[in-house]
Amino acid sequence: MLISNPVRDFFHKIVQERVLVMVAQDVDGLCACKILQSLFKCDHVQYTLVPVSNKQDLLREFDAHKEQYKHMILLNCGGNIDLLDVLDPEDDIMIYVIDSHRPVDLVNFYCERQIYLIMRHGPDEIDLIPDYDCIYRNYESDEEDSGTEYEQSSKRHKFDTETLEKRREKKIWEEKRKEIIFDYEFSYYGTSASVVLYELAWKMSKDDVTMLWWAIIAVTSQYQNKRIGRERYISGVLELQGHLSRLNHRTEDQDTTTMSIDAMKINFEHDLDIALYRHWSLFESLCHSLNSSTTFKVWTNLGMKRLHQFLAEMGIPLTQCKQSFAFMETKTRDNLQTLVQEAAEKFGLRNIKYHSFTAQCGFIHKLCASDAVYSIDALLSSKVGSELDDENSNFVDALDSLSRITAPKVISGLETAKIQLKAIKNNVGSFIDIGQVLSYGPFLFSSIKEGSPDSTFFAQPSFLLMFAHYLLHSYIRSLGKSKRERARNLPLVVSAPKQDGNTIIMGIPPIAEESRKNLFGNAFVHSAERTKSRTEHYFFDSSAVLVKNEDTSKFIDALITIMS
Amino acid sequence: MFGEKALELIRELHRNREGTLAPYNEDGVRQVLEEMQALYEANQQDVSQLVQNESDQTSLTAVQIRHDSLQRNKRCLLAYLYNRLQKIRELRWEFGSVLPANVRSNMSPKEMEWFSKYNRTLANYMRSLGNGGLDLTQDMQPPQNVHIEVRCVEDRGELELDDGSKILLKKNSMHFLPRSQCEHLIRQGVLKQVT
User: Fold this and answer.
1) Structural domains for chain B
2) Within an 8 Å CB–CB cutoff, is residue B182 touching chain A?
3) pLDDT, position B173
4) Please, which domain of life does this record's source organism belong to (chain B) (predicted)?
5) Mean pLDDT in chain A?
6) Angle (deg, nearest 10), helices A27-43 and A193-203
7) Distance in Å, alpha carbon of B166 to nearest chain A alpha carbon
8) Three-state SS across A321-340?
């Protein structure tokens, strides 16, 4: 059920209660969690916070806590699964869902009790949900039909024409329903949970700069992981910028002299869209960013040459490019943005600049939103391939690093992020050199072999997702002109082995798809049904699935037939 | 000069840092007492002479001075002891009924006796308050936050709170609880405060 007034129907209802908060382990979930925590702190709401990383976790934690809590909040998870069916909650348990995963499960949306969805009421969110009548008429009419069939079977032949008419209508309706549901089941991402919560805080006049920073990080992470397209990112950023200027204005009204330099300040600026360059060297950063590395094709010798030409064009000495950004000459650093942009135009490097935010604390700590996202993403997946306990301590680390931008964890996260980016770059290069990306007709396919040096990384879905995007972009750049146009419309499927005998299969939408809609969720389900593969729809994101190693090949075969 | 030793005791008291208890200066106290004894005896002698020989008034001034010195020594000694007791009382509120060993070693046997008596009196009083007694030494200042954020370090099963509701303490879960409920668990190392 959709909540129309979140302040009244959500927050004021739980203020007197003890609540359980279950948080998905991704950046958006974490940021949302921080915002909610500070709201709870204001009102002394007692809560318990549990991280969940997949559907099994969700179920397990729910079962463990359902005795103690009557109010549960799911942050960035659960919106796209039928909660009544999966969790089977007691009648007095209220579940509030704030989730950016779309599509929203229709049962969650239309049930009248227990499940409450908090989401934005914009036309782009609600209108996409099919009308109740289109989906649910058949239950009633079915019963009615069967009822008449049993009770009045003797009379039935008399109303032959009527029943026939009814049946025909029903058939048409059913087909229509199937179509609507099929259209609806494309998975994509809506407004981030953090922004929804930030707006809640704003409506209660409890928002501050720190909360805004968390919302910013969440939106940036959606863009960085290619969950939303550039247009939606820009509109999201502009909205946040409105909030920012309002907050800044408010502090100016008070007394500027009382603001300490150590207080956090956020600035809105145009920034270079290259990874971690403030904490790395310019050269490395250009090599490892999605945009620049694919444009230059850095995995080839020619590409490397072109990158060097690019640096020469900007007139920055190579020694400076290769040393840490912080030690570059101040003059170069100040002019870097204009230099890069001018040179980028000549080299066909588009969208090198984008709107972004930076946060500053004191004189030393300056962090831009995308760096923060890299850092947190890395922290969340840093201790890979170990048991569950460690996953949870990743969560704690990441949460700590969000609480202050000066936290030492941020730096260690950045270092891990660099290692991950290096692994991505090396693997992408070798995959393209050996030709490991294959065209299967309806989609491109690439599989990561078991025992490859970075296989521990690949077992992490968040890393795999980033890798898949890099691979797809690089692959398309590596093709000739004619093939490229076709390949732009093809999605990519990657498979990576996990240690426990399962394989993660993940699909990402084609580059040309600006809305970032992903049809694989549905396709995976059908393919699994058709081949009776042993699969688990284990992740909150429906476009990734776990398949038993032995079943992988037949699963992929079925996928080809379904998609073509 | 008379009174010098007693003044030294007061100085020592004054030199002590705030909130610490210096060792009981038994030697100093004894010397002052000896001095007082000597003064008293000298006075006795002179006075008895005065009584016998009323015409000789020469020693009267000496008696006056000795007497004043006696009075002064007494005041100083009392001040020394009283201030120490005040300090011990403060320590009782700070550390609870059992004092740390290094503090105990600085106390005289008499002070120990006073301390245990004071303890008893305080405990009796606290027991008489309210229904089941009230620990006055808790929350000497109003707490900054009623609730604090804690993280669970180990699996400890269920915890029943004052209001009868239960929560599950599971490793790595985070909770926002009333401070009074989790203080002892933090001391035990089950919970960790998140700052």
Assistant:
1) 4-128 (1.20.58.1030), 147-193 (3.40.5)
2) no
3) 84
4) Eukaryota
5) 84
6) 20
7) 6
8) HHCEHHHCCHHHHHHHHHHH
Q: Which is more confidently placed, A133 or A157?
A: A133
Angle A209-224/A369-380 helices, nearest 10 degrees? 70
SS3 at position A349: coil
Q: What is the rounded CA–CA span in Å between residue B31 and residue B26? A: 9
- Mean pLDDT of the region A429-454: 86
Amino acid A193: pLDDT: 92
B161, B167, B192: which to substitute to probe chain A, counting the most A Cβ within 10 Å? B167
% of residues, chain A, pLDDT over 90: 20
Cβ neighbours of residue A164 closer than 8 Å, sequence gap 6 or more: none
Measured CA to CA, the distance from residue B188 to residue B169 in angstroms comes to 14
Q: Which of residues 16-45 of A touch B (CB under 8 A)?
A: 18, 37, 40-41, 44-45
Apex CA A410: angle with CA A407 and CA A412, to 5°? Answer: 120
Q: Which of residues 114-133 of B touch A (CB under 8 A)?
A: none
Is residue A543 within 8 Å of A226, Cβ to Cβ? no
User: Which residues are B193's β-sheet partners?
Assistant: B150
Contact between A392 and B172 using a beta-carbon 8 Å cutoff: yes
The pLDDT assigned to A418 comes to: 92
Consecutive H or E run containing A414: helix A408-434
First-to-last C-alpha distance (Å) of chain B: 60
Position A217 confidence tier, pLDDT thresholds 50, 70, 90: very high
Which of the residues A16, A18, A70 would you substitute to probe the B interface, choosing the one with the greatest number of B C-beta atoms within 10 Å? A18
A506: nearest Cα among A544, A463, A562, A556: A544
Backbone angles phi, psi at A473, to 5 degrees: -60, -45
Whether residue A64 lies within 8 A of chain B, CB to CB, comes out as yes
Residues A28/A30/A32/A37 CA torsion (nearest 10 deg): 180
CB–CB contact B172 A44 (8 Å): no
This prediction's pTM: 0.80
Residue B181 corresponds to which tokens in the numbers above? 């409920």
Report how far residue A30's alpha carbon sits from residue A210's, in angstroms, rounded to the nearest whole number: 14
Q: What is the DSSP letter of B80?
A: H
> Residue A68: which of B168, B176, B194 has the nearest Cβ?
B168
Contact B168 A48 (CB under 8 A): yes
Residue in chain B closest to A63 (alpha carbons) equals: B168
The token pair at A12 is 């004021």
Pull the structure tokens for residue A140.
């009633």
The string of pLDDT tens digits covering residues A489-518 is: 888 999 988 877 888 899 898 888 777 788
Contact A181, A128 (CB under 8 A): no
CA distance A204 to A39: 10
Residue A303's alpha-carbon distances to A310, A346, A348, B132, in angstroms, are 10, 15, 13, 81
Per DSSP, A363 falls in state: T
pLDDT along chain B (195 residues), means of 10: 85 82 89 92 88 77 90 92 90 82 87 92 87 73 81 84 81 84 81 82
Min Cα–Cα distance to chain A from B186, Å: 16
Helices (H) and strands (E) in chain A — how many of each? 25, 16
Write the ipTM.
Answer: 0.76
Integer Cα distance of A159 and A318 in angstroms:
88
Contact flag A396-B166 (C-beta cutoff 8 Å) = no
Q: Exposed, middle or buried: residue A92 (CB in 10 Å: 0-12, 13-18, 19+)?
A: exposed
Which chain B positions have a beta carbon within 8 Å of A400's beta carbon? 194
Is B42:B66 a contact under the CB 8 Å cutoff?
Answer: yes
